[in-house]
Amino acid sequence: MEHSDLLVVPMRRELTQLGFVELRTPEEVDAFMDANRNGTALLAVNSICGCAAGTMRPALARALDHSAIPHALGTVFAGRDIEATERARAYFTGFPPTSPAVALFKDGALVEMFERRHFKGRHPQMVAAELVDAFERHFAVQTTV
Q: What CA–CA distance (Å, rounded) separates 93 from 48?
């Protein structure tokens, strides 16, 4: 393992400790997406940048401590898992490449996209509240009275 790869280990761990599955190849990304065509999924593009460290990862940690969350969590690492990141971005129809990013899927369809602009210069609590709102809109179990 190269020295630069060792630097991102703690950054990767922040998400894997939350239950994210690392997707390091295009095939792993496709398998993750195929396995979640019927259900809910979150695919995060992790990054070494400050807005990933200071906002995205802490916001995800807060947001995932909620009752309505996606059942599958996957992550690629921009700048490290280059081909996997490219494949993940291919699922982000209509959005330019950005990192960090968080994409929410329901039954295989992209339903919400959080791009770098949603994280940069913002407090994690604010972003977590927006993520929770999106989770509730798209992933909450509807009950009938």
A: 24
